[in-house]
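# step 3/5: fold
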Amino acid sequence: MLGRKTKSTIDSLIGVTAQINGDVIFKGGLRIDGQIRGNINAEAGQPSVLVISEHARIIGEVRAAHLIVNGEITGDVHSADLLELQPKARITGNVYYKALEMHGGALVSGKLSHDQIEEVPVLKLAASSDA
């Protein structure tokens, strides 16, 4: 239907000719086709989609809820929900994910770590007067 937004809407674009030196903080959806030397962080606790296209080159840490990679990342990658590694994805760094979809041809030079994010009750111990 026209005018209907989905969860994977891309709100912002960093074009193929763009070169950014510095950190990028975003919320919602972001597509990167250019080059970034700096960390890329989605706003914590909010739904986010980050698309790293086959033209993109990132040097820095990347954090997003839903991350789709088809370009190059040199740095650690953190995906709170779903990490999709497309055929031209190249990651040099450790990868932390909740769910992973990896296509043939994708390469990771680093450690793959499944983050087992479970809601565990936190017990706060009160100071005991019996001691």
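# step 4/5: annotate
The chain has one domain: 12-114.
# step 5/5: archive (pending)
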